[in-house]
Design a protein that fits this description.
Blueprint: E1 5-9, H1 20-32, E2 37-42, E3 46-47, E4 51-53, H2 69-73, H3 82-92, E5 95-97, H4 104-113, E6 121-123, E7 126-127, H5 132-140, E8 150-156, H6 174-189, H7 192-196, H8 205-208, H9 216-222, E9 231-234, E10 238-239, E11 243-244, E12 247-250
Parallel strand pairs: 1-8, 2-6, 2-8, 3-7, 4-5
Antiparallel strand pairs: 1-12, 9-12, 10-11
Helix pairs in contact: 1-4, 5-9
Length: 253
């Protein structure tokens, strides 16, 4: 059976330390089991050109500031996989590199999905030179990996507006919940064109996606859908009014 494709709404780095979202991520990992590897596309690695991490033991990157000492000290020592990186390179033309590791978009989630850190992980960068259609077309090239025991994963938030985020919490803004529901609806009906042209998905869509780096990883997961694949959601919550924690699972229900 092909491995699933999974998008994680990662939210705050503090979720790495646990909580209700992390509990659900752990359940996701239990249901998937132990794949041969993971290819992760994180909102937090953008490059000019396309790169893929290729070191045997990637560094845990603390690419944030102002959080607790406990979070800054956290390590996720999952192995890399030069062999998987070479396979990704052959499929996509990505350049293998040792100049990156696992950023918090990756390890803050996977530390709960596979807490034993025993599943090899490589990251594929977001190529700034591509538009949304280009990212989707690139993602399609990864599809064969699902049949080779590899999970294709994305990490971001498809509603991500930090300027309007309510530190004290509160109800979701109408535009945020509207866009969240529009994305889910497009995923359920398999409307790839709508997901690619996300500006037209809902009124005030650009309030939900003021910059696209947190949205684009979703396209890498949506592009993996095959006829007969189920689509389901988890952690379907909008945090602080304008950060969507919604996760998406495609295939292997």
């Amino acid at each position: 059976m092909p491995q699933p494709a999974i998008f994680f709404g990662h939210g705050s780095p503090m979720n790495a330390l646990g909580g209700p979202y992390a509990d659900v991520w752990r359940d996701v990992g239990v249901s998937v089991g132990k794949p041969r590897g993971v290819v992760m596309i994180s909102a937090h690695w953008e490059t000019d050109g396309l790169g893929v991490t290729a070191q045997p033991q990637p560094e845990t990157i603390h690419d944030f500031g102002g959080f607790t000492d406990e979070l800054h000290a956290m390590q996720y020592p999952a192995p890399g996989s030069p062999e998987l990186a070479a396979r990704v390179s052959a499929l996509t033309g990505a350049t293998p590199t040792t100049q990156w590791g696992l950023d918090h978009g990756t390890w803050s989630v996977l530390a709960h999905v596979w807490p034993e850190a025993d599943v090899p992980v490589v990251q594929l960068s977001l190529n700034r030179r591509l538009d949304a259609q280009g990212h989707f077309d690139l993602a399609r090239k990864l599809s064969a990996l699902r049949d080779e025991g590899v999970v294709i994963a994305g990490s971001g938030d498809f509603v991500h507006n930090l300027r309007t985020w309510k530190r004290a919490g509160g109800e979701a803004y109408g535009w945020a919940s509207g866009f969240n529901e529009a994305v889910k609806s497009a995923l359920l009906r398999g409307d790839d064109a709508a997901l690619i042209d996300w500006v037209g998905l809902a009124e005030d869509a650009q309030l939900s996606v003021p910059t696209d780096e947190h949205y684009l990883p979703l396209l890498y997961v949506a592009a993996q859908r095959r006829p007969g694949d189920d689509v389901s959601f988890f952690n379907d919550v909008i945090e602080g009014g304008s950060i969507s924690m919604t996760g998406v699972r495609i295939g292997q229900a």
